[in-house]
Automatic annotation (TrEMBL):
Taxonomic placement: Bacteria, Pseudomonadati, Pseudomonadota, Alphaproteobacteria, Hyphomicrobiales
Designated name of the protein: Histidine--tRNA ligase
Its EC number(s): 6.1.1.21
Keywords: Aminoacyl-tRNA synthetase, ATP-binding, Cytoplasm, Ligase, Nucleotide-binding, Protein biosynthesis
Gene it is expressed from: hisS
Organism this protein belongs to: Hohaiivirga grylli
Main EC class the enzyme belongs to: ligase
Reactions catalysed according to its record: tRNA(His) + L-histidine + ATP = L-histidyl-tRNA(His) + AMP + diphosphate + H(+)
Similarity-based family: Belongs to the class-II aminoacyl-tRNA synthetase family.
């Protein structure tokens, strides 16, 4: 191809490549999360990246344009398919399809990529990873309380200290009760209710005044963009804000405040009763210092039907403008009793939560968690190819090292020794194995410790000193190769 015809290497907006170091550290974090979930009796299940669009709970796309929010396409029988936008909707389909074969309550966890067809921005990706745990088939709010306890244990296991996080719980029934009281009950008010939910969900970021504007006529942000509000009157706005501010100094005080706010709504009173039961369970298990009842938690998704919760990190970090700010939410979820029931004739209770893997990983970096820092693994030991006619001999060395459990490779390029050494440096190799004709005649190999050599080089000022010192390079007999390499690795890596 001519220069003009060559493709331009470019990454689609909202997607990212992952480097080996981040990949390895993420795997350590995922392993710690998995251990916590399994300790609670949850077991793994995996669902495909692609589901039928209607199974995800989205409307079919208009004409030829994929539905907003999901990546969609038609298959050969003109059925609409979509990349999953979360891990909960596919779980609902899986449970419904295998309902009779599953032990219930069904406790499962899933980890995988999800996709959002949304405008990307700083820290906002179109592909990101979630790690979910769900209990399906348990109507008791004890299942919700247990999920919140597990969220707390998970954060501590991955390296977030107690006091640096809080798990906050609310109940959508309570908010439904508030909305009934101000005249927003019924199917015809569903759109307005959703607008109210989304406004309250921004309370941490915008504060009461910002939410007040979104509950009323609307709000113009710093960039000049205007967001249309819910159109509530002043009295209704104050009722909603009173609900979000109902948290007291103790669980019992919060329950009393909420009881007053939802007075006259049977659904709201049911939600308050459920929160009181969850609070009692948390007290009994000694989690009430870090898992709290907080009416400001809403969660924006429409399918939540009862308790909702968020895990929030409370320590401060520096934002893009250099200002200190709280890190914020890294996980959330709630009860979604109607989602599985869409596929079946009877209702199926369910509750669960999801960890934002990338966001939690960023948090662990911010607190220098040993889970994701300080565990850099060595690159492979590289056997240099000095004589092209001795490839078999070099390959035998690699085989011997691998048999001993040592990560290693033979240089497969066509360059000379200097380029091979540069290659080993780029691979973060701890050492290289060198054998030319002289070493072969003596039955020896040269081992060059690249880490020690780099340290020594910092203290050598001339090429003559370098040659005289031959830093960190030594000879051993071929039968001592494995032992010598192990000594080099032990010197630098635990």
């Amino acid at each position: 191809m001519s220069k003009a015809e060559k493709l331009k290497a470019r990454l689609p907006r909202g997607f990212a490549d992952r480097a080996p170091t981040d990949f390895a550290a993420t795997e350590k974090m995922l392993s710690a999360i998995r251990e916590t979930y399994e300790l609670y009796g949850f077991e793994a299940v995996e669902t495909p990246f692609i589901e039928y669009t209607d199974a995800l709970g989205k409307f079919l796309p208009d004409q030829d344009r994929p539905n907003e929010g999901v990546f969609s396409f038609q298959d050969d029988d003109e059925q609409w398919l979509s990349l999953r936008y979360d891990l909960t909707a596919p779980l609902a389909r899986h449970v419904a399809e295998n309902f009779d074969a599953l032990a219930k309550p069904y406790r499962s966890y899933r980890c995988g990529w999800v996709f959002r067809n949304e405008k990307p921005g700083p820290g906002r990706f179109r592909q990101f990873m979630q790690f979910d745990a769900d209990t399906v088939g348990a109507a008791s709010v004890a299942a919700d309380a247990e999920i919140c306890m597990m969220a707390s244990d998970t954060l501590e296991r991955v390296g977030i200290k107690r006091g640096d996080y809080v798990v906050r719980i609310n109940n959508r029934k309570v908010l439904d009760g508030v909305l009934e009281v101000i005249g927003l009950g019924g199917d015809d008010k569903a759109h307005t209710r959703l607008t109210v939910l989304r406004a309250i969900d921004k309370l941490d970021r915008l504060g009461p005044d910002g939410v007040r504007a979104l509950l009323g006529t609307g709000r113009k942000d710093e960039s000049g963009d205007f967001t249309k509000g819910a159109g509530l009157d002043a009295a209704s706005i104050e009722k909603v804000l009173a609900f979000t501010a109902a948290r007291g100094a103790t669980t019992s005080e919060t329950i009393a405040n909420l009881t007053a706010v939802v007075s006259g709504s049977a659904r709201g009173e049911e939600g308050v009763s459920e929160l009181a039961e969850i609070g009692a369970l948390l007290d009994a298990a000694n989690y009430s210092d870090r898992v709290i009842i907080d009416p400001s938690v809403v969660r924006g998704l429409e399918y939540y039907t009862g308790p909702v919760y968020e895990a929030e990190l409370t320590f401060t970090v520096t934002n893009e403008d250099g200002q200190p700010t709280r890190f914020g939410s890294v996980a959330g979820g709630g009860r979604y009793d109607g989602l599985v029931g869409r596929f079946r004739s009877e209702p199926v209770p369910a509750t669960g939560f999801s960890i934002g893997v990338s966001r939690l990983f960023s948090a662990l970096k911010a607190v220098n968690s040993p889970l994701v820092t300080g565990h850099e693994q060595p690159g492979p030991v590289v056997v240099l190819v000095m004589d092209k006619d001795q490839i078999a001999a070099y390959q035998k060395m690699v085989f011997t090292l691998r048999q001993a459990g040592i990560r290693s490779e033979m240089y497969l390029g066509s360059s000379g020794m200097k380029a091979q050494m540069k290659y080993a440096d780029k691979r973060s190799s701890p050492c290289v194995i060198i054998q030319g004709s002289n070493e072969r005649e003596r039955g020896e190999v040269e081992i060059k410790d690249l880490i020690e050599g780099a340290r020594a080089a910092e203290n050598l000022s001339t090429n003559a000193e370098w040659k005289a010192a031959r830093p960190a390079q030594f000879s051993v007999s071929e039968d001592k190769l494995v032992d010598a390499v192990k000594e080099v690795l032990a010197r630098h890596f635990s």
